[in-house]
């Protein structure tokens, strides 16, 4: 058991980034206020095909919640840092207990091409024996969510 705990404590964060042709203000807004317009809810959500929305309450302590077709709500996490248009940090525990939350940070950095959005998903140790498998799943999932779905969402007209 001590070996598993030691390995889990040393799991590196998942880091992904994408460059979008938007200002940091626009990219931040698309990510946080227009999440439902680009997030692949049918695949990466709790209600999947029955999911209709994902909303971020834009303040420290605000909830990130998904809504189903029937109106049921499920919490994905809580906003820990709110610094538009530069960054936000949130706990991440879709449908799980807040005590097992990992942490997700997004930074929006101005670059000549627009904005580089940097994602860091960390604190895997809170997941215990499930940490390595979860990290591996998210390492692939964030590619599809950030580098594909979000990028395409940024290409749409506001």
What would you say this structure looks like, in words?
It is a single chain. The protein has about 160 residues and is α+β, with helices and mostly antiparallel strands. It has a single domain, classed as Alpha-D-Glucose-1,6-Bisphosphate, Chain A, domain 4 (2-Layer Sandwich), CATH 3.30.530. Helix content is about 30%, strand content about 35%. The protein contains four helices and seven strands; from the N terminus they run H-E-H-H-E-E-E-E-E-E-H. The chain has helices spanning about 1-10, 25-35, 35-40, 130-155; strands spanning about 15-20, 50-55, 65-70, 75-85, 85-90, 100-110, 115-120. A seven-stranded antiparallel beta sheet has the order 1-7-6-5-4-3-2. The longest helix has 25 residues, at about 130-155. The radius of gyration is 16 Å and the shape is globular. The chain starts with a helix and ends with a helix.
